[in-house]
Model the fold of this input.
Amino acid sequence: MEQRRCVVLQGDDVWQKSICPRLLSRFNSDNIIEIAGSQNAVYSDASLTYSQAKSLIGQEYDVVIFHLAGDVSADSLGIVVGTIRAGGVLVLCLQEVQAAGRWLQRFMTLTQSYVSSGPVFYCLNPSDPIPALSPPSHVEMTTTAEQLEAIKAVQKVVTGHRRRPLVITADRGRGKSAALGMAAAELLRQGKSQIIVTAPSLSAAKMVFEHAARVLCDAEVSTSKIVYQGKTIVFMAPDALLASNCDADLVIVDEAAAIPSAILSTLLSRYSRLVFASTLHGYEGTGRGFAVRFYGELERQTPDWQHCKLTSPIRWRRDDVLEKWSFDVLLLDADPVNHEQVLSASITDAYCERLSAEQLLNDESLLRHVFGLMVLAHYRTRPSDLQILLDQPGMQIDVLRIDGMVIGCAWSVSEGELAADLSQAVYRGERRISGHLLPQSLLAHTGLPHAGQYRYQRIIRLAIHPSIQRQGLGLRLVKAMLEKWTDRDLVGVSFAADSAMLTFWQQCGFKLVRLGVQRDEVSGAYAAIMLQARSDDGDNLLVQACTAFGEQWDDLVAMQFKTLSPTLVTSISQSLTQQPIRITKRERGDITRFAQAKAGYAFCQTSIRHYVRQAVRQAIWLQLDDATQSLLVQRVLQGKTIPDVVATLSLTGKAQLDNHLRQAIAQLILLTSE
Done:
């Protein structure tokens, strides 16, 4: 195979528009795509925006023309580099290098080093001669030996012993998704009835379905389903799959690195025949973080799990320079400090230090350790996060170090101090603004009309080296940061809500003020916002926000959060202000006649609900076992239907449900009367 090439055009768009047709005169225009963002196209009248680049996943081109402008998307660049076939060309259009931000400065410095080191990279100015670029030679695509081994391994998951999941890892361009699709198709041919494919999005699973459809030529094919002789390959989003009771001969989890570990763990416990596939270095999530977070869970639940790694590229050469360049400029292969080095250090010597973006720009090793740590810690760390780290105004980077090594890292950003007219427009629901998540949420969602004027600091990422987690280092880092924010009114954080994260931030001194009303499309979790006051004014606002949330919580549980886990409902309820239980004489009679006699739940439910809503905030609630808590939350607080609760708790029917509910209320009466 031929090397892929890169040409950097440094000049205005008039010159670029004149040179591109000449530079690419020997190429078929049907195999050329241009991504211009908000810039003027230089090759054709049609071009894609950066956000539209995602539609190119799985496609192949001889030439990609990519504009590097102020609004450039590193994610889209990562996507399009993977679409260029062997012998193809990436044309980078660049203007006004002097005005570039730090990300683009670093990008050009690294790119220039590639230009200087070999004939694969070219940098052209208006005075330079035009190189003679030839189109790539046709290469017949065949299934590689590694892909064939992967297909056999997938089939063995279905035909072999239960509880032996397979993990397939590969860098981009190794044919991982193609192998999954071909294996799924062969399983249908062999008589299997249903294969479920899940992934962070339907587009992420696109290649699995395309390759399965190529094998099953006479199947009925749509974007999310293939039907072959009554048997199916179907896509289900991760949260939808967990919410269903679907049976499957095989569940394929593609791009598993971009799915929360909690979801992967639940799938692992629910299904006995699974394949997890992950890109090691990709534009969406990272397989290295997946390995650190999830391999231990595999060992715990299914110690006989198998691993298959694809290393040979199928669309370009093994020593492809363009791939190496993309890893460098997008930090796709960034790693934290070595595991052994961290373990050999004394964590009692850890100290906190604030870094500047300039320090990171001028110290590539430090930048790689900081970014690599975040890659391991957060399942959705992407190339665009590097742009945020280097270029976002108001960004602060705090690290925890031992002997100079970065073992912890937090990114935060300043928000607030909004103009009065802008704040009012947000409060009235007339405007939405970019950034400023904390004041904007308090204005628009909580309804605090003066929230925009305060000074906020939002912690957007927090990571501790996986070798030394759960030793109090995250708490130490947060407290060290808080001590430095004497000029802030409030410090806040937003995260995908779960009980463990809620507990951690409570330990850091933060209070819950909001739970988002829409689930994350991948994790299925709701976003929580927690705040800590750093001034008297901030404390007054925090009291208002906490009061508003506490007053709304009971109704939100019944109306908005019917599917929230009972564990999280309990955790949130326990975090709210506790007050003595107050019920009327009539309510006490209703509660007693239900628990101790045979009064129907329908006739006593309003009294029971008022009682349980108060009890769930009390410390005595935690004396109930998990099953009892879950029953009371689902039936009383969330108001779920009898069939739903019976199914969730695996009960025999309404009679058993009523019996358990009477016992639960009776137990609660005893606890609250002590």
Summary: The chain has four domains: 5-124, 145-310, 339-564, 578-673. Residues 336 and 369 are 4 Å apart (CA to CA).
